[in-house]
Predict the structure of CKLF8 protein.
Amino acid sequence: RPRSHTVTTTSSSFTANLSASSSTLAYDREFLRTVPGLLMVTEIVLGLLVWTLIAGTEYFLYPAFGWVMFVAVFYWVLTVFFLIIYMTMTYTRIPQVPWTMVGLCFNGSAFVLYLVAAIVDASSVTKDLDNHNYNSWAASSFFAFVVTSCYAGNTYFSFISWRSRTLQ
């Protein structure tokens, strides 16, 4: 006797939600026109300059420059990550994360550690170490202080944003 085969298909709401959410990924062009956005782009460009100026030398012979490299690369990667989060407005999709507090902690820690790294960088630059690398190290020291001031500015704006959220 012939058997009857019944095939039942179901549609998952997960796949429908996934396709709907990925197609509505926002892009905030206006963020780059704000002061925090401009500071973030400046941090990325000049932070890249700091660690490339040091990476092109024999920095590994001097532990102080290793510390500067660590801070510069670490915060460069994190700043690129946060720029992507802000540009794609991912922070609106994850409301469980206190983004104003995260931004304040990130920018505050970047300011403090970059300030220490810039001071270490500046105090380690001397012609006695290596005349060949002197110009690169001196330039990296200058740009490290500029990046530090950018992180200070973003810390200020993050504090203002955090303060306005906590007062509401």
